[in-house]
Amino acid sequence: MLAEIAVMSVTFASVATALGAIGLFLRDLFTRPPETVRQRLAFAPEEPAGDLNRGFFALVEESGTTMDMGTALAMVMGGAIVGMAVPLVFFENLLGAAGGMVLGATIPVLYLLVIRFFRIGNMRKHLPQALQAVADAVRSGQNLSEACQLVSQEIKGPLGKEFEFAHSQLELGHTPIAVMNRMVRRVPLPEFRVFATAVIVHRRAGGNLSLLTERMARASHDRHDTRNHMLAVTAGSRLSAVGMVLAGIIALFVLSWLEPDYITTFLQHPKGPWLLATSVILQITGGIWVWRILKPVS
After folding, report:
1. Which of 37, 72, 138, 251 sits 20 to 30 Å CA-CA off 113?
2. What is the CATH number of domain 122-220?
3. Which pLDDT tens digit goes with each residue over 65-80?
């Protein structure tokens, strides 16, 4: 049985991959630009139109992954296809296929959200030190490219990699304005947006960049301390909310293990599934509500 399932899974994956490759080949074949159009390598991808597309584009950029939006969309679509096909092919269950499709499409998005969460947290922690290093480098007479190189050497993690990439692009001849606009997409922090704006204004109108950057470093440090203080103050409330949600789930599993007949009778009752769905919706709504109330400042 396991061998048959493995063979069917490999066959389905192979056919789906082949169909996808053929579709991409036909797209590139029939959508080639005219010969009169000069090809150029864009430094930063353009933001797509539409709120949903812009939100997914921002998620891909802020997660720091090397994938572009097309590759990420292909992962989501592939996960949805595989999640739909497994219950449909092996169990012939339409409801399971619908649930599998939603689950398969959600897993890549959750992966991007998780790595985005930890990446932004790491950058927020090291941003004051990075801005202070930029201010010291500019005050000592170094240019922006040398300041980015200094930060990339002192700061480890995703923020250091972003400054290292900025240094390499500045050395290749890209303008500081283009580099800052690119970095703002991948470093979604308010202090860095203000710093990038200051760099752009400085390139166009002049000004004391080192003084402004040093002030931004102090502001970022104060915001980081305030955020940590709020997280410490609300830790008990957040743990209580998580415990309330987990307690219901654990109680359901324990009850299904100790009294399976009770759960079966409840689900077979005409109002049982509706009551269960209502409780799940209320749990999700309450969790989101508490999370929004206790969410610290950005």
Report:
1. 251
2. 1.20.81
3. 878 888 888 888 888 8
Cα 166 → chain centroid: 21
Q: What angle do CA 256, 261, 265 make, to 5 degrees?
A: 105
With contact defined as beta carbons under 8 Å apart, do 151 and 136 qualify? no
pLDDT score, position 163: 92
Secondary element (H or E) of residue 136: helix 94-139
Reported as a single tens digit per residue, the pLDDT across 90-141 is 777 776 777 788 888 888 899 999 999 899 989 988 888 888 888 888 888 8
CATH 1.20.81 domain position(s) in the chain: 122-220
Helices (H), the chain: 2-30, 51-62, 69-86, 94-139, 144-154, 158-171, 176-186, 190-205, 209-233, 235-258, 260-268, 272-294
